[in-house]
Structures
1.
Amino acid sequence: MLVFIVRRLIVSVFVFFSATALVYVMAANLGDPLADLRELPANRRENAIAERTERMHLDKPVIVRYFLWLAGAFRWDLGTDRDGIQINATLEDALGATLQLVLGATILAIVLGVALGVISALRQYSSLDLTVTFSAFVFFSLPLFWVGSLLKEFAAIEFNNWLADPTIAWWVIALIALLIGGFFASLLVTDRRTRLIAFGGTTAATAVALAVMSATGWFANPGLGIGVIALTALAAALGFSVLFSALEWNPVMKSAVITAVIGILSSVAFRGVLENPYPIVVIGLLVLALAIAAGVGWFVGGELFRRPAITASLCTAVATAMVIFMDRLLWSFAAYSDSVNGRPIATIGPSTPNYDGTYWEHNLDSLTHLALPTMALVLVSLASYSRYSRATMLEVMNQDYVRTARAKGLPERAVILRHAFRNGLIPITTLVAYDIATVFGGAVVTETVFGWRAMGSLLLGGIQERDPNPIMAFFLISGGAVVVFNMIADIAYAYLDPRIRLS
Amino acid sequence: MAQTAQSAGTHTVTPGDPRPPADSDAAQGLDIKARTQSQLILRRFLRHKGAVAGMLLLGFVVVLSISSIGLGPIPGWWDKNYVNSADLVNRGRPTLSVVPEFLGGGGMHLGEHPFGQDNIGRDYFALTMRGTQISLLIAFITGVVATVTGTLIGAAAGFFRGRLESVLMRITDVMITIPTILFAAMVAVMWGNKGVAVLGLVLGLVTWTQVARLVRGEVLSIREKEFIEAARSVGTSAARIIVKHILPNVIGIIIVSVTLAISAAVLLESALSFLGMGVQPPDTSLGRIINEYRTAMVTRPWLFYWPGIFIIAIALSVNFIGDGLRDAFDPRQNRVRD
């Protein structure tokens, strides 16, 4: 294994260096970087041209310039752009914004895409499957810049207008309720009667909830409250213990429920601390919650159920923490909305310039700026994950070992989670590695649509100005990410699938 | 005896068939036809509803874009062109109406400017059709170039192994490292002003890596099969093995790759043109049109919708065709679970 990793590392480094050389030579041959200076009046022209020639080493051959850049890059000095501005400083600002966008979108797309793909594979040829497959095709064919502009118009401008008077028309309530009811009903595999009951129940509950929210102006002044937190936490405890064990009152469920109750109580106890905390306090509380959950799982689980109990408790703790976090964010929403003149969903830039607010308001500020670009990127890259995981899942479900697992009497949950899903996930690691390059490309387009000055503007500016250094800075990050992710995927693949020979 | 006589004329009954045909079987009365491999593939393809719908939609878009404004010097049936401007009618709103009068609509007619007019009064239908033609042309060239290059490199790497393979695959690795948008933007800036055909060609030359990996993987698995060993053992030349034995077995994956490459090319070209780096004036493409009128989204939304709808129509139909082809060539992927 070690030999394999080392060899893989050496090849990757070699490949990456070749790629930087290729990109540099191309970037240096894009055109004339002095074109704009040749338009200057004659008295300033000579000086300006001489200065830029000196700065960009235009008097030296391209190969020499490449090695000059490479020598600088080894010291993490990426040089200056053609006007003399340090690239390092520009890159540091740009990187943070782009990484937030890229990582958030990738993780969301993987989780949602794999979940949708697996569900539609388990309900092959049902109406749910057909809907998911068809939507995946449509999303797959959407031009990213077009979706981005549409979201800007409808999810931002129109939504902000609507928030001024947030009431929902009755037919919209009916439509949303029917859609959600239909989705839940199509998840069940039972007889027609149970399914109809599920459909009716979910539809009615959603409709009532939406009507109440609409009537009380919840959307302008949202929040969850202790009741919703408690319900969600207990539902999470129930769900995770069913997922990792079974639907019965065993130590796994006991420990998950205890964790949920501790979470609910501490949400009340820590209310003062969470008023306007330092980020480190929030992280500390999360770590504390995880430690408590692990402890509860350890002690309640006992010898027999220790592992599933700890897993279920940890998942419950994370879910509960997320709901509490959401709750605090939502409580701050009204104040935040007022502070940005009642237009909370932003369409330009990664954050409000010079914004001053509490911890929660700052988080809301980033989230409302990230929401639309992330949504656009997720919509477009979701499809490849859902289609791919559906295909691998279908293939795995047909394997002999799945039939064996069923034949020896394992419950369907264990067959799917333990035997099928785990093996179905293996090929997806490769897809993640490929996709990271696509997401970086998508980020360039998305940033242009949403007016972010980040990695995308570095690349596009460099190409328009025929300036190699910003292009190389973009490539160093995006190409580096591709190389690293590909390497991780290869190693993970070899680790996850022992059939792969390492020699 | 009767059984043997009956089944002798059929080709579909295989020795492994668990149920020997009985006299009472309904199939005995039916006409059982022998079908070649390509007939089977065609039948499976035509059974795929999405693929057939995709074929119809793509055919409609192609025929509409070529017949309406004509191709080059040949005039089409549409009486306006994409250069001349006219007076703005009703602020340039689209006059296309598809809701019949008895449903409360304006009746079914095209009107003077079915897709409306842009801010200087040019007919937007003609402009969109022009953009569709160019986008289709670039996508087709890019898709074919990418597939041919990728197939040649992937097949050579998979078949010959050894040093040639490692050199070719390292080249592929280097190209995969460079994000497509960066690579494509650079070649488009360098060669994009030489015309749309050249743009299509260079975009194809930077997007073949996926096909190469796919084909190489397929060739690698096929060249280990017994029938290749048998061919080799009787002294068949490498060229004949490739053409006669390997190519027919990878042709399915190659054809599917063409469709995937074309739909990716539509989106890549439109994204590049949107960023101002693809098609250069006086040529135009769907992405370029959207870029030109993106500020008009609020005042003249139709300038934004029509080109987008055509991009989606092309990409979606090509994707569906590709899916149908994949199912047709590789029915194992589509089997129903028991």
2.
Amino acid sequence: MTVPTTVTAPARASAGNDVLLEVRDLRTYFHVLDGTVKAVDGVSFSVRRGQTIGLVGESGCGKSVTALTIMRLLDIPPAEIASGEIIFEGRDLLTLSEDEMRHVRGNDIAMIFQEPMTSLNPVYTVGDQIAEAVMLHQRLSKKEAWNKAIESLRAVGINNPERRVKQYPHELSGGMRQRVMIAMALSCDPKLLIADEPTTALDVTIQAQILELIKDVQDRTGTALMLITHDLGVVAETVHDVLVMYAGRIVETGTVEDVLLAPKHPYTEGLLRSIPSRGMKGQRLNVIKGTVPNPFNMPKGCNFAPRCPYAFAPCAEYDPRIEEANPPDVACWLYTPAPGSPIPPRIRPRRPVEVGA
Amino acid sequence: MSDQPLRTPATSRVTALTDTAAADYEVALESLNQWQLAWRRFRRHRLALVGVAILAVMVFLAVFGPIIWPYDPLDLRRDLPGPQGFDPIAMPPFGSDGAGRSVFVLVANGARLSMLIGTTTMLIAVTIGVLVGAVAGFFGGWVDNLLMRFVDLVLSIPFLFIVLVAARFFGGGELVPLILIFGLLSWPGLARLVRALYLSLREQEFVLAARAVGVGDLRIAFRHILPNAIGPVVVSATLIVANAIILEAFVSYLNFGLKAQDISWGNALARSQERIAVGNWWWPFFPGMAIALTVIAINFLGDGLRDALDPRAKE
Amino acid sequence: MTKYIIRRTLGLLPLFVGAVVISFLLMRAAPGGPQAALAGIKSITQEDREKWLRRWCLQAEVTPINMLKEFGGWLGVLNCDSDTVPEIFFSAQGGLNVLPAALGGGDNGILHGDLGLSIRAGRPVVDVILERVPATLLLTTTALALWVGIAILIGTYAAVHRYSLFDQGMTFLAYVFYSLPTFWLGLMLIFFFAVFLRTSGVTDFFPSGGIITTRDWPPFNTPQYWAAFGERPMAAIVDIGRHLVLPVFTLVAVNIAADSRFVRAAMLEALNQDYIRTARAKGLPARTVIAKHAFRNAMLPVVTNVALELPFLVSGAIVTETIFTWPGLGRLFIESVGARDYFVLMGLLLVSTVFILIANLLADIVYAIVDPRIRYD
């Protein structure tokens, strides 16, 4: 399978035949005692077969909730999927029955989680937990599934898989467990792999190995990858395309080169500037001022306006949506003329940002 | 009974995202002190309020019952219809026992001794339990080892066994020995709990901070750490009260407890089984209901206190 | 695994020694002491009495040395037929007295299975206790099985269907049953099922006490009874079963109330873990996720908790057997407390403590089997 290297990722781009997953206007709300939190508030994007896509943003911006909504793993209530479609290979996952959805989970779409220490069941062996999924989806015998488990452990670079497969999770290191998680996810040859902060809980040296592994298996198997992270360094090394999320919305999309080297949205710019770098010794770290807005009390205009150094009049009044943006890859009144606003947008060309500068 | 029942689903399901929301909310509440917060949480616990209401009635009975409806051993109805005594219709409100004593007067007068035994037992047990647990948990080492092995030993002997033997051999039907027996045997579980709390609390920064400014061991153990352990201690104290009331009832029911002329709920139940075949249900029913209601109320109260005093509890 | 079991057993030994010491102190502290108790047994001769005094090393004066002698005799380490050191350590057969009789040791003291003489029955305590074991074993094992089984069913179902009508109803019932005094619950059950339902002519299925219908069967646990049992086994089992219903319900109600809540909490805790999300992400059916992944983890704290609650089963048996005149150890205990039958009390204390220690050991072993994280060495 060929892996596309050029990209036109915007959500509204006409979907070709190779579109694997298309998410349209997804809204996931949480009803809690104090009100409703719009965790995902109108997100649209698509993933093509074999494509790697990065979903980037601060914690709490809705990126994990987006993934869990696609997998339909949220508890309803308190969660509610208020609107949207999740078209996977022509079927809307939101309309499937729970039984039909089960055949998608683990089989067509697999997921890796942030916490390898707690994501494996402590009372069953690694082999049991991998073979379980294989037996379920591929209808193999116990023996065959066990061999498949050994194979998939070998495929993720675990030495002596015949021995490891009989071990319990507590006998393995954190990096080793994440490899097991990846092996488990890949054991049924999924078409889409969602990795939710797969390296965040690991040591830096292990992080690099795991990323390398994910890239490697992705190249080898041609599965599409959706990488969720707050770490722009991880994104830069791993994916082709980037979606930047802020407060439940996608605020900027583009190829990894475009977004990281020449960000358009002030938020993306702020994220890049806040990465510490060499040559900054003795200087203050650049941080984005303020905090994520209170989810119960979102600003009237642009969600980012209160923290935005470039905010001007329309930002407090009008809510920019990437679906209506022109150019279509950034939701910001600096680029799109604000409706009914007499003030013209201050169009800024994509300009390079030196990381940390 | 460790999970909080009868609540709306949303409260306990705060997702990662809403943690930020809760944090914002906490900021707004900072102006209230710990006790005001606890009181706010307690007031919202409906069952705990029901418990307080029932307990108020029982305390009223304990204080004023013997004054309003005094018990006189000679005040008997002698025209009994049979061995089962008067039923509640013939002799309102609760009927009479086989000797012609009003069951209502027994219940109203029994509250005083039953509540007294419950609370004093708790005071003794809490004093010893906190002391032993604090010393073991705070100092650790061989002191801890010695004390906890002793606690293990006491806990591995059936509680009721020792209580009944002691009550029979050393109780003599008197109130004070009985309370001492209950109190001296009720503390090991609490000591174990307090020790566990101290083990974790003594490692925390505020203890280090107190040490750094030269506060002595005893002061740290009882002035700095103890207030932080107060929640779980209060909750198990309520349970000790409830258990002591039930225990007294059983011991007296077996005639190993208080003398017959001391009226407690347990004594009101004594000998009620002898006439069971003639159907005198009111005789044990009402004293038993008084015990059951009191214990339910204490359990409600304990649940409310646990939620209110839990420092990790979110608004 | 064997090593692990041996280590755990050795860890329990100090507790056993402690229980032995306590039961000895109980005998010494009792008003009148064992001498008075022996004097109270009418069925034995003066000669026998003196034989028993020597056999148990009972001393006339209370001095530290005499106390050690009595304790040694009661344990079975010393042989007080002789009074001088070192003969006192040796049995009549010439071996060390502490050894088993087959190896030339003595036959007195608890180490040789001699728990003394029942004052009430005038027979060895061991016999008095053993004849009550079957009834108690029947009651407690039935109760334990139902208690754990039902608590797990209710707790799991309530956790999976949290806040459903079932869950809230069970929460309420748990509160109620948890607060009822056990013996009073038993009394009320007798009133309703055995008295009211019988006198109002609904059913006479529920007896008010006992283990068998005394007018239909020979006394329980006698050779005649077992002969009759052999002739009509079905009728005998039905008869016992009929008598079991109310006591078992009384015994388990409080424990089911408490433990169904405990199981529910443990299950909710397990269901909230990350590995449950992993299991669901694999596409496993909800049933498998709950029954395989959550259940086994939820059972870990439950096993520990049940083991910790086993002493309550002993206390519960005392209460229940008293109310339902059940011919078991609990009732024997109450009768012996009433009659100040020290030797039986000491024997019962030892037996029940050993039972609890063994139960704890079993719980440790079960825990080690269920939780692979426990290391045996």
